[in-house]
Write a structure and sequence with these properties.
Length: about 400
């Protein structure tokens, strides 16, 4: 492992643990437990006097490789791999709060993330205030003496709002609170929340990190002190661990992450530009475009646009459904970050549980569709949109 390596090199080599056989591809250590040479060796391992694994619920070699590779990419000291993105989000938040604490979260969150802070946390006496996270003054106004955690996604799902991570981190530091960033939409290639001042980063590794529709997974990254003091015992005793088989899949995913994200972003950006000029399209929201409402913050904190595009059709739900049904290459799916281009209608799928009012606040209308661009040929995708739009009534 070298600190001077750039991401494309880190993602192929960092964290590799070679066995005595010298294998090229990382080995899958599909084991629940580990054996000890003697009773004394077991005692020493449990006392923490010797290095080594104890039980796969809290550490195993293939997971270790994935966690170390993620740490190198993210610039984090520690990582813990989880069975899904939601396991990562839930653990990262709940491990550091107790009854009587207060969370401030952006209201524009993936549906399940919003449920965790808005519905689950209050059941355990943890208060939550949701704010329009685009404006720093809203975060500041929501602070209470018991505020412990700020939680946000940026860009947000599905309307790609952008939040000033450095600004939120500054406010959090003033009161000793921690900022948790769900960095799924930005990807670790385009945005480094820890460098911007956030304290904890979480991913649904299901998305771009696997990127090939195979495994569910998640990861939490932070500094060693925070992990030791907050996450370690929670992770060990509540058991959200990732399977070593999944960790292996994700190690393979990481090797090609920069290539995939580059092609997906190029496709997303060209499709966004094409759609912005189409008469049946009311609006395109794309972080890489100059007309993005927070283009200044995008320029400040992101190294690239996005693999996702939010599209508002003039013809409402009827037009959104007609477009989805007419697309041939682009598949209808609520998933994202995949090598295959995917389109979803948030109002009837991912965000259907929100009230009409909450959806309106987030800019999700019947005519909103979210495209996750894949790695297919750009011209084929644009031609697919052209033939599908032709079938949408004006
Ligand atoms: C922004 C965001 N965070 C978290 C999740 C949850 O991830 P998972 O499905 O891996 O649990 C998703 C998607 O499902 C997401 O889009």
């Amino acid at each position: 492992m070298s600190k001077t390596w750039r991401p494309a090199t880190q993602l192929v080599h960092d964290g590799s643990l070679r066995s005595q056989y010298g294998e090229t591809s990382e080995a899958i250590y599909l084991t629940q437990g580990f054996v000890y040479e003697s009773a004394e060796a077991a005692e020493a391992r449990f006392k923490g006097e010797t290095e080594g694994y104890i039980y796969a619920r809290y550490g195993s070699p293939t997971n270790d490789m994935f966690e170390k590779r993620m740490c190198a990419l993210e610039g984090a000291e520690e990582a813990r791999a989880t069975a899904s993105g939601m396991a990562a989000v839930t653990a990262a938040i709940l491990c550091q709060v107790k009854a009587g604490d207060h969370i401030v979260a952006a209201r524009a969150l993936f549906g399940s993330c919003r449920w965790v802070v808005e519905t689950l946390a209050p059941k355990y006496g943890i208060e939550c205030t949701l704010v329009d996270g685009r404006y720093l003054e809203n975060w500041e106004k929501a602070i209470r003496p018991n505020t412990k955690v700020f939680f946000l996604e940026s860009p947000t799902n599905p309307t790609l709002e952008v939040i000033d991570i450095a600004g939120v981190a500054k406010l959090a530091n003033q009161i000793g609170a921690k900022v948790v960033v769900d960095n799924v939409f930005a990807t670790p290639i385009f945005q480094k929340p820890l460098e911007l001042g956030a304290h904890i980063v979480v991913y649904s590794a299901t998305k771009h990190i696997d990127g090939q529709g195979r495994s569910l997974g998640g990861v939490i990254l932070s500094d060693r002190e925070w992990v030791n003091e907050n996450l370690q015992d929670y992770y060990r005793h509540t058991g959200p661990a990732m399977s070593p088989f999944t960790a292996w899949t994700l190690l393979k995913g990481l090797e090609t992450l920069p290539l995939r994200v580059k092609q997906q972003t190029e496709n997303a950006s060209k499709i966004a530009d094409y759609l912005a000029d189409q008469p049946k399209v009311a609006k395109v929201i794309y972080p890489g475009r100059k007309d993005h409402p927070q283009a200044d913050i995008v320029a400040k904190q992101m190294k690239g646009g996005s693999t996702l595009v939010a599209i508002e059709l003039k013809g409402g739900k009827e037009a959104a459904f007609a477009l989805q049904n007419a697309l041939k290459i682009v598949k209808i799916s609520n998933n994202l970050g995949d090598a295959k281009s995917l389109i979803t209608h948030p109002a009837t799928t991912t965000h259907k549980n929100l009230s009409d009012e909450a959806r309106a606040e987030l800019g999700i209308s019947g005519g909103t569709v979210r495209l996750s661009a894949g790695i297919e040929d750009t011209d084929d995708l644009i031609e697919d949109f052209a033939q599908a739009l032709a079938k949408v009534k004006a």
